[in-house]
Specification:
3 helices, alpha/beta, two-stranded antiparallel sheet, 5-stranded mixed β-sheet, 9 strands
Length: 186
């Protein structure tokens, strides 16, 4: 006679390992995406170099300007940017106003409304601008040309005095790289 052996019970438990693993991987994916997006879009980092200025004067070649069209005729921002380049400013971006807001005449945005780089850009204008300090860490300046903007002052301010022995935070300026011969720039 054969011995009676107990029959194994059917396993009715839920397999928790797979759902838990999926939830952990999903949390890692969402966290990585959030961190990457914040790293990409964050401009509050300090991207400037504190330095003393020779002769205590801030000149256009030390400033990075973004020129935005905030409602002016098409091409106005490009023409303004070209004129600023002729005066020695480093123009980084020329585009429509990123927020889509319309500006009546002209607006100048920078780290502080009274910072030297903002005052030097304001010295190029023949209209009174709206000045906005937004505590940006890179110390670039945004010039937004608006609906009633005419043109730059024909004789802009060549430099701005800064207090003696003071440190000014200037954006790091990347020189344009020449295209090696034989390479297509497009």
């Amino acid at each position: 006679m054969s011995a009676l052996r107990p029959q194994p019970r059917p396993y009715s438990g839920i397999h928790w390992r797979t759902p838990i693993t999926m939830v952990v991987l999903l949390v890692i994916l969402i966290g990585g995406t959030w961190w990457g997006w914040n790293s990409l879009t964050s401009s509050s980092e300090q991207n400037c170099v504190e330095q003393k200025l020779p002769n205590n004067r801030l000149v256009p070649k030390q400033i990075v300007v973004n020129v935005y069209n905030g409602g002016a005729k098409a091409g106005t921002a490009q023409r303004t940017a070209e004129e600023l380049r002729k005066r020695g400013f480093n123009v980084r971006k020329v585009a429509n106003e990123p927020s889509g807001d319309k500006t009546e005449v002209v607006a100048v945005r920078g780290a502080a409304a009274d910072s030297p780089e903002v005052r030097l850009v304001m010295g190029q204008l023949n209209q009174k601008p709206e000045t906005i300090g937004d505590n940006r860490g890179d110390h670039t300046v945004d010039l937004v040309v608006g609906v009633k903007y005419n043109r730059l002052n024909t004789k802009g301010v060549p430099s701005i005095a800064v207090p003696a022995d003071s440190l000014v935070c200037l954006p790091s300026i990347r020189p344009t790289q020449p295209i090696p011969s034989g390479e297509n720039p497009n």
